[in-house]
From TrEMBL:
Source organism: Glomus cerebriforme
PANTHER family according to UniProt: ADP-RIBOSE GLYCOHYDROLASE OARD1 (PTHR12521:SF0), PROTEIN C6ORF130 (PTHR12521)
Record protein name field: Uncharacterized protein
Swiss-Prot/TrEMBL GO biological process terms: peptidyl-glutamate ADP-deribosylation
Organism superkingdom: Eukaryota
Length: 122
């Protein structure tokens, strides 16, 4: 006898929210991206246009990967992406965008791409 999916309890501690469209998979996971992200992952984070990176997770990115001058020398404007290649990891920067806007934009931009993107939150 089939079980009604709405009555099932999800005990999965993995992805909290997953959006899949074509080949693109976007998921949100509670965890520390510096600890829990696979080594072959690229990391991205929003930062201010001046790349000061003086508070919160931005400070950890700066301390761990350095490269503030390298990012600044790319002369990116708000809404563009500056990249910093470190091993197999990339840091990227934007500033003060609402999370819902960022997630919606990510889903629109990468729709149809054959990739998986994971957003970590604590």
């Amino acid at each position: 006898m089939p079980t009604d999916p709405s009555s099932q309890t999800n005990i999965n501690t993995g992805p909290i929210d997953t959006h899949q469209n074509n080949k693109f998979i976007f998921e949100e996971i509670q965890g520390d991206l510096f600890v829990d992200a696979p080594e072959n992952s690229s990391l991205a984070h929003c930062v201010s246009a001046d790349f000061k990176m003086g508070r919160g997770i931005a400070t950890i990115f700066r301390q761990k990967y350095n490269g503030v001058k390298e990012l600044s020398n790319q002369h990116k404007k708000t809404g563009q992406v500056a990249t910093l290649q470190r091993d197999n990891r990339i840091g990227a920067g934007l500033d003060k965008l609402p999370l819902e806007f960022v997630i919606d934009t990510i889903r629109k931009v990468f729709d149809g791409c054959d990739m998986k993107m994971t957003m970590f939150y604590l």
